[in-house]
Design brief:
Blueprint (H helix, E strand, L loop, with lengths): L8 H22 L4 E4 L10 E4 L3 E5 L7 E5 L10 H32 L7 H31 L18 E4 L1 H21 L2 H4 L11 E2 L3 E2 L5 H8 L18
Antiparallel strand pairs: 1-2, 1-5, 2-3, 3-4, 6-7
Helix pairs in contact: 1-2, 1-4, 2-3, 3-4
């Protein structure tokens, strides 16, 4: 059996990093702290800080019946700036492509570790996994960078009256969700490059001939001739019968 597991240790690490990055992207999508709005009027927003995410805006208040007050932001809301609905779509796409990428990467690792006899599709699987990882990182990085740019430019949002938020804060701050998401995007891109750069998928395996034909337990692999196979199948050992297989003659 051809031994290839030792060639994909870095790709196995890339699979672990990709899975962790997908969890961080899932966390980023659900967090509300994309933008921190600092407001001057603390009569309603008691701490003076509101959290604006891509799905809802929240703040704490002692003046309202509920301690935590949140209002949902829909993709069809006209007041939402373009970067928010775009982020809703791209983050969901990133979750889907990241999940499919992890499954594909796991299949690629299984082919290397357990299915080395059939190597016809191994290059396709590795390239597909790497492409999905890179695509996931890109899907995630674009809305994060766009929203971070809006925060740094102190862009306004014309919230409806029920949100009880001013259109322009005193100042804005980049939330923790953007930092987590950027880290996850970089991890995804690195994992994708690791899978795309798997040299055995591009060089040795593309021709169907592995570069390393050494069995780690029994030394170099050798081929048997047809005559040797025929001799072994018939119990022949250099033209001499093995006495252990002789049976008593019946007189």
């Amino acid at each position: 059996m051809i031994y290839l597991a030792h060639t994909a240790h870095l790709q196995f690490l890339g699979l672990l990093v990709g899975f962790l990055a997908w969890i961080l992207i899932l966390t980023t999508t659900g967090l509300n702290e994309w933008r921190l709005w600092h407001v001057a009027d603390v009569s309603v927003i008691t701490p003076g800080v509101a959290w604006v995410g891509i799905w809802k805006a929240c703040f704490y208040s002692h003046a309202l019946p509920s301690m935590e007050n949140c209002q949902s932001i829909s993709i069809s809301d006209s007041f939402a700036p373009a970067e928010i609905p775009v982020a809703q779509v791209l983050m969901v796409l990133a979750l889907i492509s990241g999940l499919v990428g992890n499954i594909t990467a796991a299949v690629a690792m299984r082919m290397v570790y357990f299915s080395v006899e059939d190597r016809r599709n191994i290059r396709l699987v590795f390239v597909l996994a790497g492409t999905l990882y890179v695509l996931t990182g890109t899907f995630c990085l674009v809305p994060l960078a766009w929203n971070m740019s809006s925060v740094l430019n102190n862009s306004t949002i014309d919230f409806p009256p029920e949100f009880q938020l001013p259109a322009a804060p005193v100042r804005q701050q980049v939330g923790s969700a953007i930092g987590v998401g950027i880290s996850a995007s970089i991890m995804m891109l690195i994992s994708g490059l690791v899978f795309l750069c798997y040299r055995y998928a591009w060089a040795a395996l593309s021709t169907g001939a592995p570069r390393n034909t050494r069995d780690p337990l029994h030394g170099p692999l050798t081929k048997m001739t047809q005559a040797q196979r025929f001799g072994l199948a018939n119990g022949d050992n250099q033209g001499r019968d093995n006495p252990a297989f002789h049976t008593e003659e019946v007189s």
